[in-house]
Protein 1
Amino acid sequence: MAEEKVMEQEVKAVKTLDRKDLLKTCFHWACFPMVTINYERFQSLQYFCAMENVLDKLYDTKEDRVAAAKRHMEFYNTTPEWAGFTLGMNCAQEEQIANMPYGEERTALETSVNTVKASLMGPLAGIGDSVRATVDAIIGALAAGFALEGSILGAIILFVLAMSWYFGVSYFGFFYTYKNGMKVIRDMNKSGILDRLMEAATVLGMTSTGALVPSWCSFNLTSAIQIGELTLNIQQELDNIIPGLAPLALTVLLAVLYKKNVSSIKLVVLMFVVSFVLAVLL
Amino acid sequence: MQLGSAILLSALCAFFGWTNYGFVNLGTTRPIICGTLVGIILGDAYTGIVIGGTLQLVYLGVQGIGAAIPVNSTTATTVTTALTIATGVPMETAIALAVPVSVMGQLGRMAAWTINAPIMHIADKLAEEAEYKKMKMLQLLGSLVFYVTEFIPVFLCIYFGSQFVTSLNENMPPLVSDWLSKATGMLPALGFGMLLALMYKPKFLPFFIIGFVMSAVFKGSLLAIALLGAAMALAIFFYGPSSQGKTRRKAGA
């Protein structure tokens, strides 16, 4: 027991990760999360490649290196910018493992590396995919407003916002979990801050979507129909009720159909059919 | 279109779809950005920007959730932009091609995800030998697979699509052009509809209505309405008790 302690202290001084190593792992992942993605084990090789410089630095013996490589070739898949939350924690764990004497404790910690990955990638993807959908939609819609007027500002705004979000989340998640470990996830769950962030983002998303429907869906029934003496100008009649009613009705209809699991391809075909009918009739 | 120029155009168009998967993830797969860039490179930035903006709206609600690969909005944008500029047909005609092109692009990506699976087995073998450097080299292989699977559908669409679009444009009856412009005007509704379906909960309906009325009736600019939405979002974030109470109950139980 006493011997082990001495050994532990001796080794401890040797292996630490500096900021450069951590940044390299963080940005290798952020830049190349998808390169070898596949239907069998998704992002597992990319996870290893991001961790490679850390593992390379921490482990010297072949047994350790093989074990470490296998650990990080396990199944992994999550939303790219949110993977930092497990990467950061894994780096902290590996650092701890490398400085431990062999034994039960070390084996337990080695197992926990994959427990962290496996137990967090699902929730992270759940949060990540829906937050990404909302954020992408909002900034996409904002930028499209500029682009449709022919302004290059659209592309610039989208690029700046999307990249600050993507690299911001990647960086924050990685270093926050590296420093604070599991505590982070527990804290976030307890305060419900993610739920509230999602809710607030959805409010913004819904408002922007509502604003987009009448402004960018040019769905005009311009022609007039003669019914005996009466000339019926459909668009004018509709505009008298409320402007933008036709696009609104179409959007709601498509939303309802989509919710009922009609695929987007079928909906596109449907729209081409409807617009053909309209083109023939009006 | 000549084979040589078709290959050059395809190489350019495939590049943008490839960036997200095979290269540094810089957001260049988003329709507005890749449309603008293709436009600038081909010397007609305006067309690229407007097509990018239109298709960004069409694909607003198209998101990859979980392991599902969404339709490829990048190839749709780059091919449409390239065809519009190269053949000189009106935008509306070329945009009609966006839908089949996006499905072709999706198939290409599915192929890449399948082809990449054996790489895992090579990586496993190398892991047994702790060959870290060689494992990292495998990334180049994956990257190459993504470029090829991105290039093939794009090339097919550009080479055969250009003939189709040109002949369609030359013999276009007024009915067809009327039809296509109506369809193009309607297409963004799909993006909005999918987005609405994605975010919809009864409690969010008021904000959709506020946004709609501010835009349709009061003709507010999108940026102004987005700011209003941001204000409401902040108010909800700071004052909203709903989720706080829910999690507290959960924590207590």
Protein 2
Amino acid sequence: MSCEPPAISVRGLTKAYQIYNKPIDRLKQMLWHGRKTYYREFLAVKGVDLDVARGETVGIVGRNGSGKSTLLKMICGTLPPTTGTIDVRGRIAPMLALGAGFNAEFTGRENVMLNATIFGMSEREIADCFPRIVEFADIGDFIDHPVKLYSSGMTARLAFAVAIHLKPDVLVIDEILAVGDDAFKRKCARSPRADQGARCHDSVCLALGPEDH
Amino acid sequence: MALTHPYATADRTTWQIVGIPLNPLEPFTALWRHRSLIRGLVKREIQSQHKGTLLGIVWLVVQPLMLLTVYTFVFATAFRPHVVDEDASKATYALMVFTGLILYTVFAETIGRAPRLMSSNKTFIKQIIFPIEILPAVVIGAALVKAVVSFVLLIAAYFIFIGVPTVTAITILLVVPPLLFLTTGLAWFISSLSVFIRDCAPAITVLVRLLLFLCPVFYSIEAIGYPYRYLILANPVSTCVILSKQALFKDQWPSPTHVAIYWVVSLFVLWFGYAWFTKTRKAFADVM
């Protein structure tokens, strides 16, 4: 494992949030190319170095506001870092917020299709793994009801079931599983591809190795 | 195609400064790359517009059919403004209006949605890895599907009231693509700008209504005298509407110069909109 390059490699990662009073200030800032400053800074993450090998699970713990979610968002690529580099090898499945990527008006089934398409799966691949997703989520008839009727636990179940069946190389989970019940958490833990992710209530990066597929 | 980082260069992803895409083919390759996702989202978009209705997807045909019936009835019997061309029969005039409206609606629906396109898809920007640059293409794609249905009805009505279209009708395939390029380019620009300037939404609402009357939909361009004609020609939809009406109803080939200029300008707008969008998108999360 040591000779292989890490699945996630983070070097000198810093995020200083720029806080703007008005949205238009952000545009002015861009157009002035930094000759003038329109924002205040808030330092959320400073100088993080992190390597996650294939097959390794890393849990990130810390108090509220200590920058856990910020770090994970940067790893997922939804938030640009201020300085530093992030190398991620392979496909990432982010689970950053409950119900993210779900359209509340559509049924669970339709949302599974949509999520898998966004992730870049072909229609045949989706059809192949669809029964397994439904089985893993185990939400009964609710799969054909709109997601807006789901409880938080059901939403988390479906999201997790989708994420692990997409066969990502890296799975990033931010506190979503905290809303699942114990039975579901045990099930996630038993799933070979989900390993420790489900047991920890906190932010987790999973780098899934080839043996997990 | 696997999705990795939004700013990924290859499979191995590294953050880097996103430069302006100088390659004019860039907007096309970006959309082509996500074609199956766009197709899926367009389908969803159309379904969601009729979700929960009794007729469901049938509305896709019923809606334009009702519009066509009403326009034909109103313009062919009751109402006829004095600015129309004298040689057009009443049925022809009604179908001309319908042609103009089909084209204008593609523009209006897309541009009208653009200001709120980013804010209504916040989770796509902040919580999942999603190619948000395809969202304007999804909106115009859905508008285009509806336009094609309307166009089929238009051609059916054409056969009934006028007869077999002339060969020049084929040139419609030459004048519609620039309209799509222009609209997509503007949608990219407006959807990005409205993230930073919220005033765009009310301004665009008014503008979209205004431009309908500054477009030769209800009248013919020849009826407008000269300084004002420039104002109408400045409307991005006008050229397409004028040339389409000529090709369909007047048996006239479009002037190659006009078509060439329209293509060049629209491709530039498409490229500029895309370049602006790519340049500004990394700042979206800062202000949403």
Protein 3
Amino acid sequence: MARLTLREAITDALREEMQRDDNVFIMGEEVADWGGTYAVTKGFLEEFGPRRVRDTPISEMVIAGAATGAAMAGLRPVAEFMTINFAFVAFDAIINHAAKVSYMFNGQFDCPVVFRAPGGGGKQLGATHSHTPDVIFAHFPGLKVVCPATPYDAKGLLKAAIRDNGPVLFIEAVPLYTSPKVRDEVPEGDYTVPIGVSDVKREGSDVTIITYGEGLHISLDAARQLEREGIEAEVVDLRTLQPLDMSVPLASFKKTFKAVVVEFGHQTYGIGAEIVARLQEEAFDYLDAPIKRVAQNDVPAPYSGLLEKAALPDADKVVAAVKEIL
Amino acid sequence: MEKETLLDWYRQMVLIRRFEERSDELYQLEGKIKGFLHLYIGQEAIAVGTIAARRPQDHLITAYRDHGHALAAGLEAKYVLAELMGKATGVTGGRGGSMHLASRDRHFWGGYGIVGAHLSLGVGLALAEKYRESEFAAICYFGDGATNIGYFHESLNMAGVWQLPILFVCENNKYGMGTAVDKASANPIISDKARAYCIPAKRIDGNNILEVYDETSAALAKIRAGEGPQFLEMMTYRYEGHSIGDRTRYRPEGELHQWRDEKDPIATLQKHLLTQMGISETELMAIQQDVEREMDEAVRFSNESPLPELDTLYNYIYPEA
């Protein structure tokens, strides 16, 4: 067992899957010679060679489309978008093709493709490079959307994604990549974490905080602050946005009767909107207070650090939201 | 070319044409086909001639005007027609419809409804063969209109950079929906666009099945010899509108008649059979009657087939483990 960063856990999963199965290969911008713009695939070209680690032109449409076609023909491509912001250019290939071929052709074709997409804001990269657009990809049936928050989950979920026979969008929160406080014990050998299963990351009895990805870590920070004031928050990590496993958040909510949803995407039509709808539909009698949402303000990400930070969720905002409903 | 082979091609082309004509009637007169219906009448020599030149393991992928390719790939008319009528017995169980025919067994990866998008999938099919170091290729069909979208350029570029085993077949029928090729493409010579990506390209007569077959065979041989992607621009003409309901007011007076009277792909082959191959009118009539019986049976089968069960609605959203 080693203590790994999120990025190291992802690298390990990719390397182990490529060692295990010759059908697994990597394609994307700067994945080979450069070693990945976030250095996730550093050393892979030397280890696996140019057949299996393929630099592409800056062509997101054909990166996504060719990976989809190769997957239909039986390979297991891991296609990397340099950032999730560039996946917008490939939206048609992902949503209209990868996510449709199984259903539209009546189950004749599998499509075991993984799209890796680093995302998230807070790095002063400006409005076009700072999105957390996870929810728009999770809107469509046919595409699994996985958003790990811990190194342990990241390694196990990425292995599960690569072995899945359908398309998976694997969203990695860049701010977590090398963060020391996200470091985690990660087993060296093989294991998987099932896609579509939520997880309690901290137990508590007073309020349920439902979150995922980067939101997990500010929620855990908030829970520690609240603990000092005698408030015990339970923190639920969704881990997968599509298909959404509501059993864990519902069980927790039925215990605490109060909930806050935390996400880094924009608030309007966000993950929170879906979770709130599901909680009131399926557990109306347990509702003791309004369910609050903590999300990114509905503004394009400004460049200036102070402004950008003001628009993003943080632990203080989560604490304030919890206190409003207790 | 063997007489039997040519008669088989003739039969396939007549079947495609009659399939399209019967589909048109089932849509417009009987209301049994809904949604989009893009007919292939006038372009039959391309699907039949190219697919005759492939090996069974070579991949086929095309756009939404896909009935001809499906039939030429060996999908049975009755299952294709049942798909158009949304029946459970259709080739994709009534989930795909006219634009999304497919057969895994026939290596026919589908018709696709988003213009140009499937070129990128075709690149992926070819990539899989290159990755496995096989001798098989992908044949990717699209219209002239698709050559103006980003997918086309990204796909040709990647196929060129990676030297993938793919044959691009542009079926240039002069119109992308209702917009003439020279109004939509800064360079109306589509094969020039392939040359920009260093892909060998030829413009050929797409209504002459002998030429289509020979050029496809030559291009596939080059691909199998490791020469990378190839491109054929096949000149042809679509007799019907873009889809049902298009009255083709954008066409110049007489253009359709000229193509139909002078360049029809079935008449061209028929003339060759009668004058060069010693085939009699009677033999061709027998083939036409045989096709008519097959279509009668296809219509009967499709009419009598059940609709999909409601409890299948959620099947295959995700592939089964």
